[in-house]
TrEMBL record:
Keyword line: Metal-binding, Molybdenum, Oxidoreductase
Cofactors required: Mo-molybdopterin
Tagged with keyword Metal-binding: yes
Species, as recorded: Streptomyces griseoruber
GO biological process annotation, one example: sulfur compound metabolic process
GO molecular function: heme binding; molybdenum ion binding; molybdopterin cofactor binding; sulfite oxidase activity
Protein name per Swiss-Prot or TrEMBL: Sulfite oxidase
Moybdenum cofactor oxidoreductase dimerisation domain segment(s): 234-325
Domain (Oxidoreductase molybdopterin-binding) ranges: 49-212
Pfam family, one: Oxidored_molyb
Length: 342
């Protein structure tokens, strides 16, 4: 397999060998299992396209370069010496870029810790007219029958500067494990997981988007109609799922709590619940949002009859964005619950 040069990689970055080769996915929890506000790291899903690199921590460095006044090269100790912050954030995979409209419910909610990207950009000083920050990982390998020299994503400069985007060193208070992107990854709260580049090694300020496969061929949603344009898979569309009840122990005439988690790029202001397959909807109680965390919703329900009931939940944001019933990654979640006589 030919190994093209890495234009974005600094000279002093070692080329990591791979611990694991090729695409992989680990998804432990399904919606009924996601009962805790914070997902334990060991239970959080993981995705890698090219494999998992073996990053030698003492040879690792991060460059912040491109259209900046002052290029930075930071060691792990340099990063640790900068002010650290934490944010609790929902972490959601957009699903396979080869089948982006299949809802995967591949999601969790974790506390990330590290250095604000805005702090690094303040030190580097982006040039006037720059509009994006491109991030590069140390992983390389084959995805979709093509060799990729590295994983590369981008995000708008405004998002990079909003104070929530992190160059992260910890998850739930512990150092990032190798699989999780350690020693250092990008975390973009409010954006799909694909944008949070793991095994981060270079940040490049630019006046244009990345031209890599993971921002052009993959993770670009097709236009909604002929007049529209393809859109980057950046901001989290409203989404929600039912944790409980499940199809056991639900009895006619007995109250039960319907509950689950809802989130979006913006705060969720309303979650509606249906117990009749989407014919009628009732607003649930929704907790307010902290950071970019998911929000809990609850509704008391007393089933009146035995038999199958189709439960569904639908989140809505302040600006009115909501979930579709058509095949989309944030399609309304439904569950059939069989109600019995006690
Ligand atoms: N370097 C690199 N970063 C990456 C990926 C990757 O393949 N390589 N996959 C992305 C995708 S699609 C997702 S959903 C998240 C998954 O992060 P996790 O494994 O910590 O859950 O990492 C993103 N960052
Ligand atoms: Mo993903």
């Amino acid at each position: 397999m030919p190994t093209p040069s890495r234009p974005d990689a600094p000279d002093n970055t070692h080329r990591a060998s791979m611990l694991v080769e090729g695409f992989g996915l680990d998804q432990r929890l399904r919606p009924p299992d996601m009962t805790s506000f914070l997902t334990p790291e060991a239970d959080l899903f993981s995705v890698w396209h090219l494999g998992i690199p073996d990053v030698t921590t003492d040879r690792w460095s991060l460059t912040v370069g491109g259209a900046v006044a002052q290029q930075l090269t930071l060691s792990l100790d340099d990063l640790r010496a900068l002010p650290q912050t934490e944010i609790t954030s929902v972490h959601e995979c957009a699903g396979s870029p080869l089948a982006p409209s299949i809802p995967q419910r591949r999601v969790g909610n974790v506390r990330w810790g590290g250095v604000r990207l805005s702090e690094l950009l303040r030190l580097a000083g982006p040039d006037d007219g720059s509009a994006y920050v491109i991030s590069a990982g140390l992983d390389h390998g084959v995805y979709d029958s093509t060799y990729h020299d590295h994983y590369e994503k981008d995000l708008p400069l405004d998002k990079a500067l909003d104070g929530t985007t992190l160059v992260a060193l910890t998850v739930n208070g512990a150092p990032l494990p190798a699989r999780r992107g350690g020693p250092v990854r990008l975390v973009v709260p409010g954006y799909y997981g694909t944008n949070s580049t793991k095994w981060l090694t270079a940040l490049t300020v630019s006046d244009r988007r990345s031209t890599g496969a993971f921002t052009t061929k993959y993770y670009m949603d097709p236009p909604a109609d002929a007049s529209a344009q393809a859109t980057p898979v950046w901001e989290l569309a409203p989404n929600s799922f039912l944790v409980a009840p499940v199809d056991a122990g639900v009895h006619a005439g007995k109250p039960v709590e319907i509950w689950g988690w809802a989130w979006a790029h913006e705060p969720v202001t309303r979650v509606d619940i249906s117990v009749d397959g989407g014919q009628t909807w009732t607003p649930a109680r929704v907790t307010s949002r902290t950071g970019h965390a998911w929000q809990r919703f609850t509704l008391a329900w007393t089933p009146s009859s035995v038999g199958e009931h189709i439960l569904a939940c639908r989140a809505r944001t302040l600006s009115g964005a909501t979930q579709p019933s058509t095949p989309r990654r944030n399609r309304i979640h439904q569950r059939v619950v069989f109600v019995t006589q006690e």
